[in-house]
Amino acid sequence: GLCTNLLLSQTPEHILAQTNNKTEIHCKLRKEHAGVYWYRWSQERQKFQFLIFSNSLGKAMYGTNISQDKFSVHGVSSHTSYSLHISHLHASDNGTYYCSVSQSSQLLLGSGTQLGVVDVLPLPLKTTQAPVSKKNVRCITKRKTTSKKGVCSPLIWVPLTASVLILLLSLVPTAHRLHPLRRRLWLRIHRQ
């Protein structure tokens, strides 16, 4: 199973990077583990992809069709801090990246980092602030408090959706095994 956990903290939450550049995602563990896994959730393909596992000795194991030139993991000697380096960024690298550790036959996920790759980075907006009356300030404050209650972060729903998908996929072999039993039972009833 997969679940999000407070044992891992992941930064930053969002990255907007330019094509052909590089970026890095940091993962801090509350306690030492044998190594860290990295996964990418693709909204477009609706699937999790295993990228790389790096053990505490620095040895890496890559997922299927994952380029060693593109992904690398760097850790510190304490084995509680790792960073995923992604180079030669391309639009296909868009997605939410998760660091993960294995504990009691579960994969514990970090909070996720959403990566967006664009050809041209947007220019920062130059804004001049006009003086705001006290009435407007009250309205803005109220709006902020109500929006916090009503909006759910996609970082909560993505791991939850992934867990449900994995659970459903794990039921397929069970259903496949039960089909011949059901057929035998049906034949036995009709023979009687």
Automatic annotation (TrEMBL):
GO terms for cellular component: cell surface; membrane. It is found in: Membrane. Pfam families: V-set. SMART domains: IG (SM00409). This is T-cell surface glycoprotein CD8 beta chain. One of its GO terms (biological process) is adaptive immune response. GO terms for molecular function: coreceptor activity; MHC class I protein binding. It is a single-pass type I membrane protein. Residues 12-110 form the Ig-like domain. Keywords: Adaptive immunity, Disulfide bond, Glycoprotein, Immunity, Immunoglobulin domain, Membrane, Signal, Transmembrane, Transmembrane helix. InterPro entries: CD8B, Ig-like_dom, Ig-like_dom_sf, Ig-like_fold, Ig_sub, Ig_V-set. Its main location: membrane. The chain crosses the membrane at residues 155-175.
